[in-house]
Specification:
Layout lengths: L4 H7 L1 H8 L2 H8 L4 H27 L4 H28 L4 H5 L5 H16 L2 H23 L13 H8 L1 H18 L4 H27 L3
Helix pairs in contact: 2-11, 4-5, 4-7, 4-11, 7-8, 7-11, 8-9, 8-10, 8-11
The site of the ligand Cc1ncc(C[n+]2csc(CCO)c2C)c(N)n1 has 13 residues, from helix 4, helix 5, helix 8 and helix 11.
């Protein structure tokens, strides 16, 4: 028996669909999401991204090969040098200043998710860490594709969240998502059933924490 990334999704199908098709996602696609819910999400996502960069640094530390070390380094550079800047610019367009971001209190859902990922990587190996990151890396690409396949989704000027969808449907992002899936397919191919069961638990936990992150936005929870 060899495993692949899609087996993780199949093992957690209910939670995965709840994450991908969450009410926050549907409303965003329809252009009907409350703006304050989106702002709350964007602000917490700034904190999320900072911890996500730390997870790439942990991936570097956990690497056994130069290839894995380079991959982690590229991820860390992309987020610190590029994506954080883009996120700050995007927040400004939504009326959130850099000072607002610097002073943000961290919501419990942000704390739970990010620290779970870091703890999973600390406790386990590079594969555990990548599986904990997979709902984030693969999920957002799948969300953009799911939204584009829905007749209710509004694209273009009629949807204030159009740029958000555009970012995750982009060729660049979709290629990064495929690269992550390929990496996971290669590493999962030779795990034992007992190891696969452990990794399924990690994947399910991280997927459920993504669900909580959407819900935090909807509820403006702190
Ligand atoms: C809660 C939450 N989950 C996933 C993402 C998506 N995401 C964050 S970093 C990254 C990879 C960039 O190198 C991706 C796809 C998000 N923004 N917020």
């Amino acid at each position: 028996m060899t495993y692949r990334f899609s087996d993780l999704v199949t093992a957690c199908e209910g939670d995965w669909r709840t994450y991908i098709e969450h009410e926050f996602v549907r409303a965003l696609g329809e252009g009907a999401l409350e703006e304050e819910a989106f702002r709350h999400y964007l602000k917490q996502d700034y904190l999320f991204l900072i911890h996500f960069a730390r997870a790439y640094a942990l991936a570097a530390y956990k690497s056994r090969t130069l290839e894995d070390l380079r991959q982690a380094h590229e991820g860390l550079k992309a987020i610190v040098d590029l994506e954080m800047g883009l996120h700050v610019d995007y927040c400004r367009e939504w009326g959130i200043s850099e000072e607002d971001l610097a002073a943000l209190p961290e919501a419990r859902a942000t704390m739970a998710y990010t620290r779970y990922v870091l703890d999973t990587g600390n406790r386990g190996d590079l594969l555990d860490l990548h599986v904990a990151l997979a709902p984030c890396l693969v999920g957002y690409g799948e969300i953009a594709n799911w939204l584009n396949g829905r007749p209710e989704t509004v694209r273009g000027k009629g949807n204030p969240y159009d740029a958000w969808i555009a970012m995750y449907e982009s060729d660049e992002f979709q290629a990064a998502m495929r690269a992550e899936r390929d990496w996971l397919d290669a590493r999962l191919a030779d795990v034992t059933p007992a190891r696969f069961a452990e990794l399924t638990q990690v994947f399910r936990d991280a997927t459920r924490l993504e669900i909580d992150f959407w819900q935090m936005g909807l509820d403006r929870a702190d």
